[in-house]
Amino acid sequence: MKNLRMISRSIAGFLMVLFVFFNLHSCTTESETIELGYVLWDSEIASTHVVAAVIEDRLGKEVSLTSVDAGPMWMGVSRGDFDAIVAAWLPATHEAYLDQTRDRIVNLGPNLEGAKIGLVVPSYVSVNSIEDLNDYVEEFDGRITGIDPGAGLMSAAERAVEDYDLDYQLLSGSDAAMTAALRRAIERDEWIVVTGWTPHWKFAAYDLKYLEDPRNAFGEAEHIATIVTPELETKAPDVYSLLDNFYWTAEEMGQVMMLIEGGTEPFDAARQWISENPGRVDSWLK
């Protein structure tokens, strides 16, 4: 009987050790998962998947990606739901979101410079300035084709409609819907005006131009910044260092975007680009 009690205690002790081990292992695995948020712009799909692939393949950590609108993306990183975003358009496009969250986030600075937003038309369209759009309402069917309603670009487009007193309806949708409408119009040689930004693969695929913006409704040249939580440096210092060093050009981003647009899955496109640009990636991991 005494032996049975001793065996029972041993088994109970062994089970307790297993319970603690698996609990600790589960917590460690969960804490090492890096949460990245991003908006469904082709540019940010490219950059976020490249960063995620480097974290997984070179740093050995799991990554979870969540696509959201711009507002929830910023709120998510400010609350710690996301560890980082590499999709912050500053100083103008996401200015309002930065103002709401700046006390709860860390801005690691630009990861790409020379970004731009505005109204875009095919080059065969004879209009060159936003000021002249009201003279061609019928040709454009009175519509400006936009993207997701929460995007800072759409807020700037709404400001442009007001500043220039445009007799146009600003249509919200998505990046994919906007580029599909642009493609259809170009195939039919029709006039269309869309909300656009650089970098974006559409400028490589089509002959496009920005409309002049003399009233500066869309602001000056922008950069794309990396935003992280204050806790990330302690949680994953190697990831923090990578993100702090992450920087590339519009041309490099465009290479990934064109692969994705050509039908390559985002992670496959990211890994292909990484394999072809080891020097650039190594510079992020120093």
Low-confidence stretches: 11-30
Mean pLDDT: 90
What is the structural class? alpha/beta
Shape: globular
CATH superfamily of the largest domain: Periplasmic binding protein-like II
Termini separation:
63 Å
- Could you state the order of secondary-structure elements as H and E? HEHEHEHEEHEHEHEEHHHHH
What is the name of the CATH class of the largest domain?
Alpha Beta
Count of strand segments: 9
Helical content stands at: 40-55%
- Computed CA radius of gyration, to the nearest angstrom: 24 Å
Please report the number of helical segments.
12
The profile of the biggest β sheet is: 5 strands, antiparallel
In short:
With 286 residues, this protein is an alpha/beta fold. It has helices spanning 2-32, 42-59, 70-79, 95-101, 152-163, 175-187, 202-205, 232-235, 237-245, 250-261, 266-276, 278-284; strands spanning 34-38, 63-67, 84-90, 106-122, 143-145, 169-171, 194-198, 208-210, 222-228.
